[in-house]
Amino acid sequence: MSTEEKKRTYLGNGKAVNGFPLTNFSICLSDIPEGVVSTSKTNGKKYLNLTIGELKDGPNEWGNTHTVWINDYKPEESSKPAPVKETADLPF
């Protein structure tokens, strides 16, 4: 990731459920930008990659403890070395 902070597309908030390892969320489908829903080449189903995080400053004015945003991470193209060719002239 570059040193520049990426702008996140937040879609909603959620609350931790007391006594349970759960967080309930509401996601605004109207806030999903065009082009971020991908279609699988293998099964044709549609996917939206999301990331969920705890709010840094604690619960907000509605008691929400978590937020959800679009995960738009794309790994950088790395320059991998060319594969080593195997030869029949092995020393063993």
What does this protein structure show overall?
- The chain is mainly β.
- The chain has a domain at 10-70.
- The protein is built from no helices and 6 strands.
- The chain has strands at residues 10-16, 23-27, 38-39, 46-47, 50-54, 66-70.
- A 4-stranded antiparallel sheet has the order 2-1-6-5, with no helix packed on it. Strands 3-4 form a two-stranded antiparallel ribbon.
- Strand 1 and strand 2 (23-27) form a beta hairpin.
- The chain starts with 9 loop residues before the first strand and ends in a 22-residue tail after the last strand.
Keywords:
0% helix
Secondary-structure element string: EEEEEE
The strands making up the biggest β-sheet line up spatially as 2-1-6-5
Helix content: under 10%
| Residue runs with pLDDT of under 50 for 5 or more positions | none
Radius of gyration: 21 Å
Largest sheet: 4 strands, antiparallel
Number of strands: 6
Averaged pLDDT, please? 84
Please report the number of helical segments.
Answer: 0
Q: State the end-to-end distance.
A: 44 Å
Classification by helices and strands:
mainly beta
Beta-strand content bin: 25-35%
Shape: elongated
Give the SSE layout:
Layout: E1 10-16, E2 23-27, E3 38-39, E4 46-47, E5 50-54, E6 66-70
Quick structural summary:
This protein has 92 residues and is mostly beta strands. The protein has no helices and six strands.
